[in-house]
Amino acid sequence: MKLTMLGTGHAAAVECYNTCFVLSEKDKYFLIDAGGGNQILMQLKKAGIPVEQIHDIFVTHEHIDHLLGVFWMIRIIGQKINQKKYEGDLNIYCHSELAGKIESIARLTIMPKIIRLLGGRIRIVAVEDGEKRKIIDHKVKFFDIGSRKAKQYGFTLKLDNERKFTCLGDEPYNPENYEEVRKSEWLMHEAFCLYSQNERFKPYEKSHSTVKDACQAAAELKVPNLILYHTEDENLPRRKHMYTEEGRQYYRGNLFVPDDLEVIKL
Fold it and tell me: What SUPFAM superfamilies would the database entry show (predicted)?
């Protein structure tokens, strides 16, 4: 299993793409969020991931930096279906409140010859808190992260030998999700900025966390592998070094601060 970070930036980042990533194994791909625009298509191309091979997308929540790229995926995959260049179906997973919004926006913005595929070969699949699905041949469990803003879901995915990969969405770890997160081999946690720069970037006003907060949470949970993402972009050239340096003060496991298009073997 590989994780390809298509984007690592927060909503207003312009020096890197908005946070979204792909989990892949052999020729099967699971796209999580799609960023804020059609640059999702460029990022997939740069990563060497064929759109024709993506059959599963999960949308964590309704914020535009995670959602808008999904409509480009619907459009392009819909075109390929109509051109008989896409085998199988596309499943777009999200919580029930978001499912109707995605369909409504799609119907307002995408041409009828593609919209007619909704409910057929393009399906918007509403999932509930605690619901389990099999995606790219792995067990996936969705859960409500308890967001204080827009309703948002994270997920766990079982790797080989029952190792667990957990994505918390783009908000700090919530102790209410302890049962979902505990015993995770891998944890993805947002880190809006360095703790030393929290007065400058004010992550807490946005319901986000710092590198220090994310690393302390991972240390308390005894997670051996931590991936930090959804960051500011002003420190981008030195982000990996700066975030790793601060993180090492609070976390002794394997710390990853990926750049856009970086691949991590799980």
Answer: Metallo-hydrolase/oxidoreductase (SSF56281)
pLDDT given at position 162: 86
Would you call 208 exposed, middle or buried from its count of C-beta atoms within 10 A (0-12, 13-18, 19+)? buried
Question: Among residues 54, 89, 85, which one has the least CA distance to residue 72?
Answer: 54
In the chain, the amino acid numbered 260 is D
Between 211-221 and 239-247, two packed helices, what is the crossing angle to 10 degrees?
Answer: 50
Q: Give phi and psi for 224, each to the nearest 5.
A: -75, -25
Q: Give rounded-to-5 percent helix, strand, coil for the chain.
A: 35, 30, 35
94 forms beta bridges with: 126
Residues in the chain: 266
CA 132 to chain centre: 18
For the chain, which domains are there? 2-265 (3.60.15.10)
Per residue in 189-205, pLDDT (tens digit) is: 999 999 999 999 999 99
Each residue's pLDDT tens digit, 17-37: 999 999 999 999 999 999 999
